[in-house]
Design brief:
By secondary structure, the chain is of the alpha/beta class. Helix content is 41%, strand content 20%. It has helices spanning 2-26, 43-54, 77-86, 97-106, 146-155, 174-190, 206-211, 226-230, 232-241, 266-281, 303-308, 315-320, and strands at 31-36, 64-69, 91-95, 112-118, 136-141, 161-166, 194-199, 219-222, 245-248, 260-264, 297-302, 323-325. The strands form 2 sheets. It has a 7-stranded mixed beta sheet, sandwiched between helices. Strands 2-1-3-4-5 form a 5-stranded parallel beta sheet. Strand 3, helix 4 (97-106) and strand 4 form a beta-alpha-beta unit. The longest helix has 25 residues, at 2-26. The chain starts with a helix and ends with a strand.
């Protein structure tokens, strides 16, 4: 009789273990939505995935990715964000300010992690850097151009007239944009540079933007955001054709042919964004995760472009550069 009871206990244990394994196998994997203005997957989303791998996550085993890409048409971002919410993703990772704003408008419950959003407090994306509040947190992207203007003046001391090209969707809402552009004008005036701000509103608008650049302009400042990143090769190429010294706040622009850049390592920011996703999947709330700001900025100079423009970069500037492209 005792033997029968022992056999029954073994059978029940095996059945219980099998049920547990089956339940575990049927449990849905976390779904991570990736909302971007760019074509995805891209080097940026690849950096995010690498960050997850560094933490021990394997795609297809531990999580599933859902990509939504506006492909440069930021007016599509709200609909794409709504699609991710309907797809019942567990977390939305956003690339850029416009995508972050669209995701935040689409849901106040699904956690949102932005890998790069400019001035998130000023734009009302989070309540504060230390205490974001709500369902949004991530890494803030500086959007000031004062260092880029200083770089332009140091590389080309004769710069007196310059054009600042920006993506309006990265400077929303309108009240913030107005304040920001006024600040930019004041920064340029302090360096004795007459600056004109010109928006790039659609991916096909680069030739039109250059058509608006007046003769006598000898400098170009490019904001590291949205449409400008998508069209950086075209922007840098046209700048070289027009013999304009072009600097940017994004370190990838010199590799595309611009003269120089001073900015943060955005791919590294997305690797860091993976740590936010990890903590949220383990139970943390976005409202309790402070927004990070980059602490390292890199100076990149394209010496080949400088030679093509007939410029001699000051030796002191070359010595400070983190990378010089020959």
């Amino acid at each position: 009789m005792v033997g029968n009871w022992r056999a029954l206990i073994v059978v029940l244990a095996v059945l219980s273990l099998g049920a547990a394994v089956q339940a575990q196998g049927l449990a849905p994997m976390p779904r991570i939505g990736f909302l971007s203005y760019d074509v995805e997957p891209s080097p940026i989303s690849t950096s995010f995935l690498q960050g997850l791998r560094d933490l021990g996550y394997v795609e297809g085993r531990d999580f599933v990715m859902e990509y939504r890409s506006a492909r440069g048409h930021n007016d599509r971002l709200p609909a794409l964000a709504a699609e991710l919410v309907r797809a019942r993703v567990d977390i939305i990772v956003t690339r850029g300010t416009a995508a972050t704003v669209a995701a935040r408008a689409a849901t106040r419950t699904v956690p949102i992690v932005f890998g790069s959003a400019g001035s998130p407090v000023e734009k009302g994306i989070v309540a504060s850097l230390a205490r974001p509040g709500g369902n949004v947190t991530g890494l803030a992207l500086p959007v000031g151009i004062s260092k880029a203007l200083e770089l332009l003046k140091e590389a080309v001391p004769g710069t007196v007239r310059a054009v600042f090209i920006y993506d309006p969707s990265a400077l929303t809402p309108n009240s913030y944009r107005e304040t920001y552009l006024n600040t930019v004008q004041a920064q340029a005036a302090a360096l004795n540079v007459k600056l004109r701000s010109v928006p790039l509103r659609e991916p096909q608008g680069v030739p039109r933007v250059f058509a608006e650049i007046d003769r006598g302009t000898n400098g170009l400042v490019l904001l590291n955001a949205g449409l400008l990143i998508l069209r950086q090769e075209q922007l840098c190429g046209l700048a070289l054709q027009r013999r304009l010294a072009a600097v940017s706040t994004g370190r990838s622009f010199p590799a595309a042919g611009c003269l120089a850049a001073y900015g943060e390592n955005v791919p590294e920011m997305y690797r860091r964004a993976a740590t936010y996703v990890d903590r949220i999947l383990k139970g943390a709330r976005p409202s309790d995760l402070p927004v990070e700001q980059p602490t390292r900025f890199e100076l990149v100079i394209n010496q080949k472009t400088a030679k093509a423009l007939g410029l001699t970069i000051p030796p002191s500037l070359l010595l400070r550069a983190d990378q010089v492209l020959e």
